[in-house]
């Protein structure tokens, strides 16, 4: 979770994710949209990839990037579940149900 939030801390990286939200883009196409050096864009893409928010695929001489929606959504949902006061009692209930289930299945064996 820490890597995701560190990746999202950058405005440039959030913009890259927005660009990738509708289509795959090559590294060059992404770099064209920013007024920073290509190595800087590459570094931002590396951070996003390390956080598993984007995936890259080399096709010929180009590297194509796409967003990994599941990872972003799951991380943000997990965070909200941790800090949302409404979810705490539900999580406790879920944990109790799981423990009761485990106790029942253990006694059946």
Describe how the helices and strands are arranged.
Layout lengths: L1 H7 L2 H10 L4 E2 H6 L5 H13 L3 E6 L2 E6 L1 H15 L3 H22 L1
Antiparallel strand pairs: 1-3, 2-3
Helix pairs in contact: 1-4
InterPro entries: ArsR-like_HTH, HTH_ArsR_DNA-bd_dom, HTH_MetalResp_TranReg, WH-like_DNA-bd_sf, WH_DNA-bd_sf
GO molecular function: DNA binding; DNA-binding transcription factor activity
Organism: Erythrobacter insulae
Which short descriptors sum up this protein?
Arc Repressor Mutant, subunit A, single chain, elongated, alpha+beta, 109 residues
Polypeptide structure, described:
The two termini are 37 Å apart. The protein has helices at residues 2-8, 11-20, 27-32, 38-50, 69-83, 87-108; strands at 25-26, 54-59, 62-67. With 109 residues, it is an alpha+beta fold. The chain has a three-stranded antiparallel sheet with strand order 1-3-2. The protein is elongated and about 60 Å long.
Number of helices: 6
Distance between the termini: 37 Å
CATH topology, by name, is Arc Repressor Mutant, subunit A
Shape: elongated
Domains (count): 1
The helix-and-strand class reads alpha+beta
Which sequence of strands runs across the widest sheet?
A: 1-3-2
The CATH top-level class label: Mainly Alpha
- The portion of residues forming beta strands comes to 5-15%
Q: What helical percentage do the residues reach? A: 55-70%
Largest sheet entry: 3 strands, antiparallel
Spans with pLDDT under 50 lasting ≥5 residues? none
Determine Rg (CA atoms, Å): 20 Å
GO molecular function: DNA binding; DNA-binding transcription factor activity
Pfam families: HTH_5 (PF01022)
Protein name: Winged helix-turn-helix transcriptional regulator
Domain HTH arsR-type: 1-87
